[in-house]
Amino acid sequence: MACPVQFLCRGIRTVGLVLLYYAFSIGITFYNKWLMKGFHYPLFMTLVHLTINFCLSALTRRAMQCWTGKPRVILSWTDYLQKVAPTALATALDIGLSNWSFLFITISLYTMTKSSAVLFILFFSLVFKLEEPNPFLVVVVLLISSGLFMFTFESTQFNLQGFSMVLLASFIGGIRWTLTQVLMQKAELGLQNPIDTMYHLQPLMFVGLFPLFLYNEGLSLSTSEKLFRVTELSPLLYSLITLSIGGILAFGLGFSEFLLVCRTSSLTLSISGIFKEVCTLVLAAALMGDRMNMINWLGFAVCLQLNSKSPELELPLLRLNGDDSAAEFNDEDEEQEITLH
Predict the structure, then answer these.
(1) Which domain of life is it from (predicted)?
(2) Is 187 exposed, middle or buried (0-12, 13-18, 19+ CB in 10 A)?
């Protein structure tokens, strides 16, 4: 009787982790889109999120240190600037451009375009020799490109500027995740724990994105009545609270992704991500009024099938160590170690 009970407990735990991942992932997408309707400063919003992520990761590190009695890793300035800075800059631009695009495009177009990131991840995996060349990848690239074209074909809500931003973010995302894999494989750095990784990435991400914020939003924000020229306290508190909620969602998303992989497997995250995109598009049509024709849905279906059927499309970050590290996580649960894949 123990086996069925254990199986049931694992199933309930997996469903719970998937729902937690869905809540944060879908929640932050719709929340940021809603916030951008009245707060047209996406880069400033991203900087606030980075600050909150740094504070929460620092508090979590402190709690883990008190719980385990072991000091957390702190990199030297040489390793920090030479090995972490490129990953941090790519991550900052990926997130910043993604949030910026919400000013121009719908959630459905954002979701579909973002799914093309796997093409750039594969490309840079080949460049950095993390993947072996495979003729099948050429076919996959052509089919996903065709699916993306079909999704945007004759779309009445298409915006070239926003689409270009998301596509550029996906391109940079390929660099981001490839560099992240290289960073995580450097065992001497000791950044296998996602909390430690987030703690070290956030400051450099802030510094990397700040010049772009100053150039694009600095003057406008300094004269805005939403923050620096408020005449009453309530609008200021409203802006700070809404921005803080987004930061908490961003922290929860990153943590829930890593927790889902470590407690289950990379396959669970991959399948969950596919259904999450379907849920996002359905909710976008129902709640936000996004319009999609039959050709658009067919293009989306093409990309979904390729992502679900092709083992070559599984992210190298997840495929290399997914199942092994999940077992390691269970063995070291008392130390609260969550391995980043």
Answers:
(1) Eukaryota
(2) exposed
Report yes or no: 121 and 316 within 8 Å, Cβ to Cβ.
yes
The values of phi and psi at residue 339, to 5°, are: -80, 135
Spatial contact of 246 and 21, defined as CB atoms under 8 Å apart: no
Phi, then psi, of 100 in degrees rounded to 5: -60, -35
Q: What is the pLDDT of residues 109-167, one digit of tens each?
A: 888 777 777 677 777 777 766 666 667 666 766 676 676 666 665 555 678 888 889 88
N- to C-terminal Cα distance for the chain? 34
The two tokens of residue 11 are 């199933």
Whether 318 contacts 264, CB under 8 Å: no
CA angle 280, 283, 289 (to 5 degrees): 120
Q: How far apart are CA 159 and CA 11, in angstroms?
A: 42
Assign 59 to helix, strand or coil: helix
The answer to whether 191 and 197 have CB atoms below 8 angstroms apart is yes
Q: What is the DSSP string of 166-199?
A: HHHHHHHHHHHHHHHHHHHT-GGG---SHHHHHH
Q: How far apart are CA 196 and CA 54, in angstroms?
A: 10
CA atoms within 13 A on the CB side of 8: 5
DSSP string, 73-123: P---HHHIIIIIHHHHHHHHHHHHHHHHHTTTS-HHHHHHHHTTHHHHHHH
